[in-house]
Amino acid sequence: MKQDWLQEALQARAAKGQKRTLRTMDCCQHPFVEVEGRKLVNFSSNDYLGLAAHPLLVERGHAFAQAYGAGSRASRLVCGSHPGYLKVEAKLARLKGTEAALVLNSGWQANLGLLAALAGPKDLVLMDKLVHNSLIQGVLASGAPFKRFRHNDLDHLAQLLQEAQGKRVFVLAETIYSMDGDQPDLERLVGLTKAAGAFLILDEAHGTGVFGPEGMGLSVGLGADLVMGTFGKALGSFGAYLAGSELLVQYLINFHPGLIYSTALPPFALGAIDASLELVPKMGAEREHLGHLSQVLRQGLRQRGYDTLASQSQIVPLLVGEEAQCLALSAYLEDQGFLALAIRPPTVEPGKARLRLALSATHTLEQINGLLSALDRWGAL
């Protein structure tokens, strides 16, 4: 009886076409995945460079596990920060062009604890309307008042910065937005925040590995105060990083609750990160191929009348609108041999359900054309 409200909440989500379930998927060599015994071309993975199964990541992971053990034993502030961390963080700071870097367990953990560590009730947070939920939850945990500026509307941000004179202001944005695949005018964004004396935090989760010098992100060299990125997407491993000044990193070691209260990453994951940081700078050809495939897909979808919003990246949304239609299209494509999962509210706004087509350097032009042909058949039904 006391749990009836749980069932009611699930039924309400199901009625809206928003109920989720976990499906078991066996990992094949990317870009394939096996679902219920069927091998599908995977257009839903964040493994943008196809590194998740790379033998060097597995080999280096085993090497770190042999050196430091299977488990990390404690939080980094107790006895979990072994020499492998120093090696990886030094390499990361050099590649990001920052004074220091700090490795954490996940992007969610990094963002959730970040604003709790930095901001408080006397501050003001200005954030793009489409920043990741982890940043929003972090702002709520901080107790800081906040305002959301219209997506990628830097004129709106400039107005809010003008109104906030005299306050300590934190500005939150992403370099590549995870659901729309677009990006802000980063140079202007940095200029606006610097002129206003605001503290700029950039989420580089979907840019790290794919864009920028040596694939290290669009933020490199721009002068943002703090950059967060993840290793679990293009870099094929697990975990996240914060990169900035030495002073800022030392502050976060003392005040970031996610670092203080979480057990450290297992050595295997850290070894895989170390290997990916060695590989990614050398993968210019793969990044070029990925960019070409993304352009072909966007052009093909737009020619067929599909809205891909303002995508400029390997994330190509196919806007459908209503949840039921989006689920039907996803199911149809799975029947045709493609995994293209439906993204629905509350992840995106009501009326903006979509297929989030995520491309990888391991995809082929033939697979892109196969997907487009399947959509042609859908349109003819």
UniProtKB/TrEMBL annotation:
Biological pathway: Cofactor biosynthesis; biotin biosynthesis
Domain Aminotransferase class I/classII large: 39-375
Catalytic reactions of this protein: 6-carboxyhexanoyl-[ACP] + L-alanine + H(+) = (8S)-8-amino-7-oxononanoate + holo-[ACP] + CO2
First-tier enzyme category under EC: transferase
Cofactor requirements of the protein: pyridoxal 5'-phosphate
Source domain of life: Bacteria
One annotated GO molecular function: pyridoxal phosphate binding
EC identifiers of the protein: 2.3.1.47
InterPro entries in UniProt: Aminotrans_II_pyridoxalP_BS (IPR001917), Aminotransferase_I/II_large (IPR004839), AON_synthase_class-II (IPR050087), PyrdxlP-dep_Trfase (IPR015424), PyrdxlP-dep_Trfase_major (IPR015421), PyrdxlP-dep_Trfase_small (IPR015422)
PROSITE patterns noted in UniProt: AA_TRANSFER_CLASS_2
Keyword terms of this UniProt record: Biotin biosynthesis, Pyridoxal phosphate, Transferase
Family: Belongs to the class-II pyridoxal-phosphate-dependent aminotransferase family. BioF subfamily.
Subunit record text: Homodimer.
Name of the protein: 8-amino-7-oxononanoate synthase
Upper classification of the organism: Bacteria, Pseudomonadati, Pseudomonadota, Candidatus Lambdaproteobacteria
